[in-house]
Every structure is written in structure tokens, then in C-alpha cells.
Write a structure and sequence with these properties.
Elements: E1 2-5, E2 13-19, E3 22-29, H1 33-43, H2 48-55, H3 67-81
Antiparallel strand pairs: 1-2, 2-3
């Protein structure tokens, strides 16, 4: 499991499990439970690059980032760690 420490959002961590470049599981620590569970279910089974493309740059209330954007950053960091 890859653990990413978030920045600038309500969630504090994102736990990601990936196999063969496909997202198997995502768990957000803290944040908006319903929305983040929904995002986790939507990206499950998705190719990492597709998820990055869809989520990167999404903004939450002018913060310059969001939990979906942080997930894209976590996936980029995961790919760079390989």
C-alpha cells in the first residue's frame, strides 16, 4: 500500500493500492466521508493515467487543490516511486 500525505485539504492521508497500473483500492483519512468514498469507488479498477488525467487540477473553494487533485498527485508520486 502506498501512503500519501495530503496538503491543503481536509483529508490528511490517502492510501492507494495499485496492481499492474490499475487502482485496486483508495482510502482517504479524514475529510468528507460520503464524497471521498464515492471518489474511491469511481476510480477503483481505473488505469492510473486515466485517473490522473480526470482528477488533476480540480479545485475546492479556491484552495488551489482538492481531495481529487491530491489523489492525482498521490498517483503521480506512486508512479515516480517505481
Amino acid at each position: 500500500m502506498f501512503v500519501y500525505k495530503t496538503s491543503g485539504v481536509c483529508s490528511t492521508e490517502i492510501h492507494v493500492e495499485v496492481k499492474d497500473n490499475v487502482i485496486e483500492n483508495v482510502e482517504f483519512v479524514r475529510g468528507c466521508p460520503g464524497n471521498l468514498f464515492g471518489i474511491s469507488m469511481l476510480v477503483k479498477g481505473m488505469n492510473i493515467d486515466e485517473a490522473i488525467e480526470k482528477l488533476h487540477g480540480i479545485d475546492c473553494r479556491g484552495k488551489g487543490t482538492s481531495c481529487p487533485d491530491q489523489l492525482s498527485k498521490a498517483l503521480i508520486e506512486y508512479k515516480n516511486s517505481l
